[in-house]
Design a protein that fits this description.
The chain is an alpha+beta fold. It has 3 helices and 11 strands; from the N terminus they run E-E-E-E-E-E-E-H-E-E-E-H-E-H. Keywords: Hydrolase.
Length: 183
């Protein structure tokens, strides 16, 4: 019997994750509808890339990430675009006039069913200070676009964990999905 032919067995279920055994595979599933998160690619009117810094328990370290959040965790049925703008505002204090889903794919296909949507946020305007909700301690960084990659390398050298999706996000700032440079 192939692993995908076996019946799944839930061995643990929490508020946001469940652990599943299916044949010889062990993996996690997102409990919220769709198992989808959004990562927001945002550049301010001053041409600064918006990053967030926070302590992440699973890696026991401070991380540098692009703003991100679960789709539909607050309002069931919420679109990816609406979720992305809500998370951007909550985490960074910036809102966006437009949000465009660029692509959707798995985050770690051998370990989780979670998918991530890369969302480009444009028409940014400041509406608050950010910092996340009452359970979060987020520091917002606005780094000049031309210096963003070098800044990330510096942060890595300082011991920060960097979300690997940052590099894809930086590429998407500069390119269309077909690889051609953006205007």
């Amino acid at each position: 019997m192939k692993p995908n032919d076996a019946e799944p067995r839930i061995v643990y279920e929490g508020k946001y994750q469940r652990m599943v055994v299916r044949g010889t595979w062990e993996y996690s599933e997102r409990v919220h509808a769709g198992g989808l998160a959004a990562i927001i690619i945002a550049v301010t009117p001053e041409d600064n890339v918006v990053f967030v810094e926070q302590f992440r328990v699973p890696v026991q370290a401070r991380t540098i990430e692009m703003p991100a959040g679960l789709v539909g965790d607050i309002n069931a049925g919420e679109s990816i675009e609406v979720s992305a703008v809500r998370e951007l505002e909550e985490e960074t204090g910036w809102t966006a006039a437009h949000a465009e889903v660029l692509l959707i794919g798995p985050t770690s296909s051998g370990a989780s069913n979670e998918k991530i949507a890369f969302v480009r946020a444009t028409g940014l305007s400041r509406v608050g200070t950010g910092g996340g909700d009452e359970s979060e301690d987020i520091t917002v960084h606005e780094i000049p676009r031309q210096r963003a990659a070098a800044w990330l390398v510096e942060k890595m050298a300082e011991g920060y964990e960097l979300d690997a999706k940052l590099w894809a996000g930086l590429w998407m700032i500069e390119h269309h999905l077909d690889g051609t440079p953006r205007d």
